[in-house]
TrEMBL record:
Transmembrane parts of this sequence: 242-261
Alphabetical list of PANTHER family matching this protein: CBB3-TYPE CYTOCHROME C OXIDASE SUBUNIT FIXP, CYTOCHROME BC1 COMPLEX CYTOCHROME C SUBUNIT
Limits of the Cytochrome c domain: 48-127, 144-222
GO CC list: plasma membrane
Quaternary structure and interacting proteins, as annotated: The cytochrome bc1 complex is composed of a cytochrome b (QcrB), the Rieske iron-sulfur protein (QcrA) and a diheme cytochrome c (QcrC) subunit.
Membrane topology designation: Multi-pass membrane protein
GO molecular function: heme binding; iron ion binding; quinol-cytochrome-c reductase activity
Protein name: Cytochrome bc1 complex cytochrome c subunit
Organism this protein belongs to: Candidatus Nanopelagicus limnae
Top-level EC class: translocase
UniProt PTM: Binds 2 heme c groups covalently per subunit.
Cellular location(s): Cell membrane
Catalysis performed (reactions): a quinol + 2 Fe(III)-[cytochrome c](out) = a quinone + 2 Fe(II)-[cytochrome c](out) + 2 H(+)(out)
């Protein structure tokens, strides 16, 4: 204490204290700025992505969905559908489509991954909704259960997509598409958004873990070899029997007609 008392009245004491105080403030500000910088960059990047998505939307989607995504006579509103719905519909090539009176079919996508992400970001900015996923997030190989997934699929999905996931006919000319060859993230997004005639399976109805099990069963069915030859939709002996009966009976009728003509 005597040592400090000796030098605290020194003429350089005040400038030195001021220097250390300013140094401490500057250091603290630098650390705080370094911590907040990524957030500012992320916000700016997100804003740019949304603006890019808006421009894509105005050029390719607004003619049906409205300039403000409010919907129109031929297309629904996109307010609140979330990024997941956009990612599913656009990345699978279902949207955009020329004839809105027809069921949207899976085809080659019009937009690339970056453009799809921008569109999804723009629609997500309009109102809260289910977020989009990546295939890396859908850890079905690690967390899914094939047996449980098969049971869940048969109880919740087979009546439309058929018990083997090959797809099936619905009413009024609609159909449930095959789930074979679909990316895991798109299966998950379809479950949480309910595209077209499909119901929405919220996390209260089918938990995220159960969704992963369904995906694991679908992927197992995908890789299962067909040892019996032509699959015929894998709908069982009825289809196979009908095919044999039709072609077999047709062949017998043809032979009978040929023999009759030959006898004359």
């Amino acid at each position: 204490m005597k040592f400090l008392s000796k030098y605290r009245r020194h003429k350089l004491a005040t400038p030195l204290l001021l220097f250390f105080a300013l140094f401490g403030i500057g250091l603290t500000f630098s650390v705080a700025s370094a911590t907040e910088a990524p957030k500012a960059v992320d916000a700016q990047s997100k804003s740019t992505l949304i603006e890019e998505g808006q421009q894509i939307f105005l050029k390719g989607c607004s003619s049906c969905h409205g300039l403000n995504s409010e919907g129109g006579a031929v297309a629904p509103s996109l307010i609140g559908v979330g990024a997941a719905s956009v990612d599913f519909q656009v990345a699978t090539g279902r949207m955009p489509m020329q004839d809105m009176s027809q069921q949207a079919m899976r085809k080659a996508p019009v937009y690339n991954e970056e453009e799809v992400a921008a569109l999804a970001a723009y629609v997500a900015s309009l109102a809260p909704g289910p977020r989009a996923y990546t295939n890396e997030e859908i850890t079905w190989e690690r967390d899914g259960n094939t047996a449980e997934g098969g049971e869940l699929f048969r109880n919740n999905c087979a009546m439309c997509h058929n018990f083997a996931g090959q797809g099936g006919a619905l009413t009024q000319g609609k159909y449930a598409p095959t789930v074979m060859g679909v990316e895991p993230k798109h299966i998950y997004e379809a479950l949480i958004t309910g595209p077209q005639a499909m119901p929405v399976f919220s996390d209260k109805i089918i938990t995220p873990e159960e969704k992963l099990s369904i995906i694991k069963w679908i992927k197992a069915a995908e890789s299962e070899p067909n040892l019996g030859g032509a699959a015929l939709g894998r709908v069982g002996p009825v289809t196979e029997g009908l095919l044999v009966w039709t072609f077999g009976l047709g062949l017998l009728i043809g032979i009978a007609v040929w023999l009759t003509a030959k006898a004359r």
